[in-house]
Amino acid sequence: MAEVRLELIEKIEGEAQVRYHYEKDHIDFAEILFLTGRGIERILEGRDPWDALAINPRVCGICGHAHLIATVRALEDCYDDLQVSAKAKQIRELTLAFEVLQNHFKWFYLTILPLLELKAPMERVLEPSRLLGEMIALLAGQYPHNSYAIPGGISGEITPVELLGVRERHQRIRKHFQESVIHVDLEQFVRCDRIETMLEREGDLPRAMQRILDWGWERLGRSHDRFIVFGSNDLFEAGKSIGTRLRRHLDLRYLQESPIQGSRARRVLYRGRSYETGPLARAMLLKTPLTREAHRRYGDSLFSRILARVCEIPRLLRYTESLIGSIDLSEPAWVDPGPLPVEAEGVGIVEAARGSLIHQVRVGEGKIQKYRIVTPTQWNLGNGSREDPGVAQAALIGLRRGDPAELVFKSFDVCSVCTTK
Amino acid sequence: MDRRDALAKMFSAKGVRVNTNRGEAYYEKLRETMEKRLNELRQTPAATKMDIHKALDAEGLSRRDFMKWASAITAMLMLPASFTPLVAEAAELMNRVPVIWIELQDCAGNSEAILRSDSPTIDELILETIDLEFNETLMAAAGHQAEAHLDEAMETFKGKYICVVEGSVPIGAGKEWCTIGAKAETFEEHLLRVAGNSAAVVAVGTCATFGGVPAASPNPTGAVGVQDIVKGKPIINIPACPANPANITGTIIHFVLTGQIPELDHLNRPKFAFGYRIHDNCERRAHFDAGEFVEEWGDEGAQNNWCLYKMGCKGPMTFNNCSIVRYNSGTNWPIGAGHGCIGCSEPQFWDKYAYERPMADANIKAPTGGVEKSVDEFGLGLLTAAGVGIAIHAAVSVAAGKKDEE
Fold first, then answer.
1. Please, are residues A363 and A49 in contact by the beta-carbon 8 Å criterion?
2. B3-14+277-399 sits in which CATH class?
3. For residues B285 and B191, what is the distance between their CA atoms, to the nearest angstrom?
4. Mean pLDDT across chain A, nearest whole number?
5. Confidence bin at B406 (pLDDT 50/70/90)
6. pLDDT value of position A167
7. Is B333 close to A141, i.e. CB distance below 8 A?
8. Closest Cβ–Cβ partner in B117, B120, B182 for A144
9. ipTM of the shown complex
10. CATH, range A3-420
11. Mean pLDDT over residues A351-364, rounded?
């Protein structure tokens, strides 16, 4: 006799429900439902396109900055070939990367370590997340929820004083990451391609990964082994990866969304198939050494997923460090893009902490006619059917009683407020 | 009203009138009330594991840092400096006041601003040491276990706990879409149940206070604020998107100190935080007074940090203390990054003020009165208004601690 057990998933950004269907001793099917929503896309319809700059960051208090940048990019895309200054681009990339970093630290320390029954002093997460919040505030005014990015550039003049403040905090985070998380020099870590070498150290990352191995969980949480990344910049590459087979070309016309019965979230597919997005997907596209090795051994399991996310931290730190060093403050903060075309369409893509975030806007008669937001959690936690389960569903199906279903679920990191919008 | 009068009224309105000096007798009596209250609290057992001094030690903060913080909070609460030791003691006794924190239709931005991203300033440490009986984002227990804990906390501390609410309440068509817990309570039912047994309700953030972005036209879910639902309970509104942690701490400290809620304005906002406009204490105010405005992003004015009023800054219409308290441990605030205030703590900011474009195109009526005018219509008067502006500015700068002229 099949049994259905309801799990309430709190302690995430918002609330989700998972209904586990057990058949004897294993999960036969799992439904993931989001039961709250605000209708932000509807609110945007009929408004002045500029209003989106104030409304959209408020889609999410956790990754609202990604929404701001996606909005700006979508609006800028409505112009023909609008070029903002390198400085404005670099500063936007910085604040965006700081938000991603902050999310990575918080997820690892506040979500993953407790589920592995590991303890770490609170300041190991509070310190970097406070510093990163301040770094965004120095450049963008406040965090969360600011509106400093505008079509054409950024609003304020950044001075060497702010950059110094950012640089100094950056060094503290780097030091903290080296000492507490990986316990090895950052450059050495980035080149490392052997799991055992990483595990020899004493940091919180090796501790967590060793615990997963000790408990024999390293192969759990495997899904479709299909990955997708829409955003690209000097750090990430767009494309999809089926297993390790790469395809660089993506076309947004193949994006399909469908409503989910009994949930406020929509499912999203690319050419009819579900894909995983996020740090593991980005690492698969880049073939970063340590994650590739984990994937070779354990597939797209929770081990690879957790490792990939923490391994993104040093890459982001190096990336932001080089950005800080290359900003030319004498460049203009803003170039006048002129009035927004009365009829236009635009797309804004951002690689947010949990994966690709896509904003699509259609402007007609000077107003927003349609605004569509596709969030990372829609990819990863979209609810499908028994025959065609979504990414997280596939990872949960087949788990036995006593297996860490919650860890598998949270290895994707849910952002439900984003997902239901 | 002619243009000059309208302008003068708009920029010289007294707002809610904050009385910062009520005379010795008043403060003597207040001190007695507070001492009695703190004595009572001291007798009650500490309900929570955390103690502020342990928390400070863990963060490497000294007694001196703590007292510095206490004197800043004393000033923020508009109490004479001699109340600092009482405020410090109230902070130490925070773990005797149970708080139940619920999240409704929100983006988690307030929890984020308050409880995690800024930590560990003393403000946030204090919030961590309150007896947080229930908070979905923070507590260790989750799911069914958390629900049971909520029921238990509500029963144990019946009539004594502070109910903090984050997020708006959908009551429109489809409210059954927003449900919580295994019993699929609607948010409205959940709020009424938790608020019903509380001593006071604190609505945190603009969603919980006035409906916020979810209530933006056409308000698809029929979102409203807490005060539209909960009746017969003291309600304190701490708007802003996100709300400033300092204002939440201040309000809870006040409750610990007096057992009462702080003095509120007509929108149920604590006067200590919402008694002035952003404009009154803005670091760029001198440029407004001098008629020096940013006319477009990146221009000479922007490079020299001039006034953002013509770029659509809503500072003159917005009551909040951001210009003094700032955000992210006092690191910065939106105007510091060269972007005007969007009025995020005002009712209906999402429809009235969410314009990026200058108010010249927006036709906005200041909440302090005046006629609906655009900045260009005001434009003529602006330079002449500088005189008025300087006088007001000076008055406000000395207001704290001085005798109330009223």
1. yes
2. few secondary structures
3. 41
4. 92
5. very low
6. 97
7. yes
8. B117
9. 0.86
10. 1.10.645.10
11. 96
